[in-house]
Write a structure and sequence with these properties.
The chain has 4 helices and 8 strands, in the order ααββββββββαα. By secondary structure, it is an alpha+beta fold.
């Protein structure tokens, strides 16, 4: 007895349809995980480099407070970038073209561009962008892990944190709010109130710190 082995056209089309459905369900999730992993790795690199460079600034400042440094008093933020970073582009006290023209929140309810005052913005050789803006209490920092390129979403590629007078870096709405409770509690509160609906990613960085450098939101 002879047996024929093979597939009919209908069977092949059904198999291709099933493969297509599986791909449609799994490929976006895989791409999304990869993008988040890449963004998170770049954010950690920016944070680590800034932490290291602030230590150098502190030594340069003879262990004085951050507010008495050339960055903290706003007199030479540009020089700080020139001395401790590989700068590709300077945007002075504007945020474009180092940053995107506008950003949106994770939930899509808010969008806009962040205000620029007495700060300085640069884009680095690795295409990330940093903006440091001083106040009489410390400094606000905005970072975009891939510069003006998409997705341009607060909490995905755009993040906010602050530099306090003791040179420490943490999440905070302003440099004045260090700290009523524990760091973890304050970060959680700021995340719950702001992160998902903030087009600048306010509160998202604190959640990442609380979750040991994981983007669980």
């Amino acid at each position: 007895m002879k047996f024929k082995f093979g597939f009919t056209l209908i069977e092949l089309l059904m198999a291709l349809a099933i493969i297509g459905i599986i791909a449609a369900l799994t490929v976006p999730a895989t791409v999304n995980r990869y993008q988040r992993s890449t963004q998170l790795a770049q954010l950690k690199k920016i944070y680590t480099n800034l932490e290291h460079n602030l230590t150098l600034l502190q030594s340069e400042n003879y262990r004085g407070t951050f507010l008495n440094s050339r960055v903290g008093d706003g007199s030479d933020i540009e020089g700080f970038f020139n001395d401790y970073y590989s700068v590709k582009r300077k945007c002075d006290n504007a945020f474009t073209p180092c940053f995107a023209n506008s950003y949106r929140s994770i939930d899509g309810t808010n969008s806009g561009s962040f205000p620029v005052f007495n700060g300085f913005a640069v884009q680095l050789d690795d295409d990330s962008s940093i903006y440091i803006e001083t106040s009489d209490q410390g400094a606000n920092v905005r970072v975009d892990v891939n510069g003006p390129e998409p997705p341009n979403i607060g909490g995905r590629d755009l993040f906010h944190f602050v530099i306090y007078d003791d040179y420490s870096i943490d999440e905070g709405a302003t440099p004045t709010d260090k700290r009523d409770g524990t760091a973890q509690q304050d970060r959680t509160g700021l995340f719950n109130t702001n992160c998902i609906s903030s087009f600048v990613g306010l509160g998202c960085f604190g959640k990442i710190l609380n979750d040991d450098w994981k983007m669980n939101y």
